[in-house]
Amino acid sequence: MTRKRVLLCVTGMTPQVVTETLFALKEKSELPDQIIVITTARGKNRAVRDLLDAKEGRFWEFCNAFNLPGISFDEFSIEVITNNKGELLEDIRSPQDNSDAADFIMNRVRELCQNDDIILHVSLAGGRKSMGFLVGYALSIFGREEDKLSHVLVSEEFEGNRDFFFPSPNKRRIISPTGKELDTSNAFVGLAEIPFIRLRTGLTSDVL
Hints:
This protein is an alpha/beta fold. The chain has one domain: Hypothetical protein VC1899 like domain (Restriction endonuclease-like) (Rossmann fold, 3-Layer(aba) Sandwich), CATH 3.40.50.10770. 31% of the residues lie in helices and 19% in strands. The chain has five helices and eight strands, in the order βαβααβαβαββββ. The strands form two sheets. It has a six-stranded mixed sheet with strand order 3-2-1-4-5-8, with helices on both faces. Strands 6-7 form a two-stranded antiparallel ribbon. A hairpin with a 5-residue loop joins strand 6 (173-175) and strand 7 (181-183). Helix 4 runs parallel beside helix 5 (129-142). The chain is globular and about 55 Å long.
């Protein structure tokens, strides 16, 4: 039985890290079968708008541009962090918010790593720095030998540009914050795979 590849991303107000990571994985012939995003309520609104809009969603544009049907990703794949009362977290602004985010991320990574039918690829490129650390830390605890951790690398003039989502196969014009005209087909996007210590084998079954 072929195991399903799952890409797990944490995002904030820059959901383009999802399509950037997808492009980098495509270049390595390691595209996922499914995408899961962990974010805040504000982050989900932005991700749904920018990635999944029926007319202008950049995820659909990515799939069409490279003829890549079959990647499972929709609004239900975007999971909002909840606090210990089950309330959706609008943003991470307090120590308690950060603690709630840590619990949510840790539990979700543990659940995914309990599933022997999937191989997990975790991207820590998006969201607040604390979210990136937490998801990497959780993978260090629960990750298996085949699971991977990465950060996406984007050429400087395109990095952080709200109109850039992936290097287009054809010319596409966007404008930089300084007013410079850029062609997205010239952008570089690569993947930095991050080695991490796997602690799983040293943990007791009740912790796992």
